[in-house]
Amino acid sequence: MINPETTARLDGEARRILRENDKGGYTVPTKGLYPFQWNWDSALTALGIATYDSDRAWQEIEKLLSAQWDNGMVPHIVFWQHEEGYFPGPGEWQSGHTPPTSGITQPPVAATVVRQLASSMPGDHGARVTPMLHALDRWHQWFADARDPEGRGVVAIMHPWESGRDNLPDWDEPLSHVDTSNVGTFLRRDTQMVNEAERPKNHDYDHYMALVQFGRNCQWDVKTIADHCPFWVAEPGMNAILRRAERDLVALALQFNLPDIASRATARLARLDKGFNQLWSDIAQGYVTLDLRHNKLDNRLTSGSWLSLYGGPENDIRARAHYSTLLEWRQKINFAVPSFDPNNIAFDDIRYWRGPVWAMINWMIATGLAEHGRPDLAELVANDTAALIEKSDFREYFSPVTGNGGGGKDFSWTAAMWLYWASPTARPKTETQ
Fold it and tell me: Which residues participate in catalysis according to the annotation?
């Protein structure tokens, strides 16, 4: 257990990072590497801000939702200010929106965050929350209409970046069907700031940019994307997070007397709960990625597989499979939960999303474990997260083998997860609320 002096130092350091990354109404993930407002980074960061400034936490969500598109989508990047040299910037996305944004979304954690904020802070939040619930309802409906137009019960992503888990080995085969012949040359900024061994390879970026070009060429038309985008994949992380978000939206809508929103969210949730079973793999004994264009399961586990526990009630047989695999993985490495199977040849302990531990995914996994009656495993995940931060400070992610940090430094959502969940001073939050 971390001693009180270290805890106090890290608490103070986390607050400093969030304040320094504050751009006035929104928080950047980290200076330099990610200089704009990122969707799920921002929402999750609000949880940490709420531990010392409740008004500023609400502002974070309000600012994010203010960039919502007319069709309901909340974009994954909002370019509130000009930043020379960032790639891919507004010129590559050409979304046609003011403020400029990217053309894709990210996992919809905002409804869950709003429910956490409303339940943890005293006072009547109705005037502030009600407009948010209307915006969240429109966003969730966009997922149903634009990313599941056939009504299968799983939403698709059209770009690895939409998953928030950008560089998983899961994407390698679906990306192999993407034509990169017209991508041309471009200058990446990330590898000028971070060790190349920690970032996606140029080959991967060629595919990422080909998908940006596809979206740009069809002016981000959702029907064209659903019918023709070469990358069209359902994955457990996005779908579990959306299921959780719908449950939380139902609860919020009932709390704030919005029965129409509660009714729509309940209907969407029923479809998602049923559809999620399509992602179960008997071979892997967990939830895996499904390439919808080729109707092919990946059959490899990622940290996102455990988000089924976070997404909603899991049956006992499948839940037990999650518990045993988690413990088996933990024996292979030193810190849980790696983003990819440490037994697999594609595992890379320090390269972006191909093995490292991420604090916010650990919080979601621990939340699901606690809610399914395994506080012991939730505590294991929390303790590992705290130990990583104690060892390597507030890095973007961490090696599950060495505990060394990777990616950006002074990272907002790592600091937020410390303040809200991983710090010994926040530990009551590991229990089901």
Answer: 166, 396
